[in-house]
Amino acid sequence: TEVGQVADTKEFDDALMNAQALLENGAEDEALVAAKVAIDSAVAHLVYNLPVAGQEYFIQSALPWMTRWNSEMDVFVKSDDIAYWGYVNINDMSHRWKFVDCGQLKNGMPAYYLENVGTQLYLTTPRLEDNANGGRLYVVEDTTEAASFNIHFLTDGKVAITDSREGNANGSWALHPMNHQSGTGYVAHSYMITWGKHDAASAMRVVKSEKVISDFLTGIEDVEIVDEYVAPVQKGIYDLYGRRRDTCRNRYLHRRR
Fold first, then answer.
1. pLDDT band at 197, cuts 50/70/90?
2. What are all long-range contacts of 100-108, with beta carbons under 8 Å and residues at least 24 apart?
3. Which end of the chain is less enclosed by CB atoms within 10 A, N or C?
4. What percent of the chain has pLDDT over 70?
5. SS3 letters for the chain?
């Protein structure tokens, strides 16, 4: 159900099962060729899940951050209106995004404005004349200034999110974590930039906010709260062996308070 995952695999599953049956039964070459054509057709017609209007998402880098940092990394906006990547924060609304449909196809694909939920500003990229490849991403007040983005479906639910505007290399510049070092990079104050389309390091996962929050809370262990034990205190006169005395008659006796 997540963005980038295949919505329905029935046609592909049926074509694959038919091909397997033909192979097992020693079918003629003509039938096998037809089975391969059916598989190719099913792949070409796969339908992927697209963002849902009004749904809040976390845009997470698909690099293996958990191995090194024990946390996923996502795209967020700071007070300087620049887009960064860093540790997922479920309590900070600037880590959440909405995909707003542009209402038209760009590069033959659906295109979206990316609205930051926390700031209610829209993501944009430098224009071609500003040396956009490798340029920092930032947010602006309305869609007239914002970039529009295409979603390219990769493998295993991963996507590349690219600037779809004319002049920006026909949508070839993807959202990309600067200094990522393949998932081992330094994460503090690292920028989101534009980079080469379909670079493995540019792969993202667009995950519903409810799932991210649920996964985060599931990882928290239950802790039993026990009332603090307070040892009882006895008042009176005691000797050094803990024996109670009525009066204090020598230096070996002391009073407990």
1. low
2. 100/53, 100/143, 101/53, 102/143, 102/148, 106/148, 106/150, 106/164, 106/165, 106/171, 107/150, 107/164, 107/170, 107/171
3. C
4. 75
5. CCCCCECCCHHHHHHHHHHHHHHHCCCCHHHHHHHHHHHHHHHHCCCECCCCCCCCEEEEECCCHHHHHCCCEEEEECCCCEEEEEECCCCCHHHCEEEEEEEEEECCEEEEEEEECCCCCEEECCCHHHCCCCCECEEECCCCCCCCEEEEECCCCCEEEEECCCCCCCCCEEEEECCCHHHCCCCCCEEEEEEECCCHHHCEEEEEHHHHHHHHHHCCCCCCCCCCCCCCCCCEEEECCCCEECCCCCCCEEEEC
The separation between CA 43 and the C-alpha centre of its own chain, rounded to angstroms, equals: 26
Q: What are phi and psi of 230, to 5 degrees?
A: -115, 115
**Whole-model pTM?**
0.73
pLDDT in tens, 140-173: 999 998 989 999 888 888 898 988 876 555 556 7
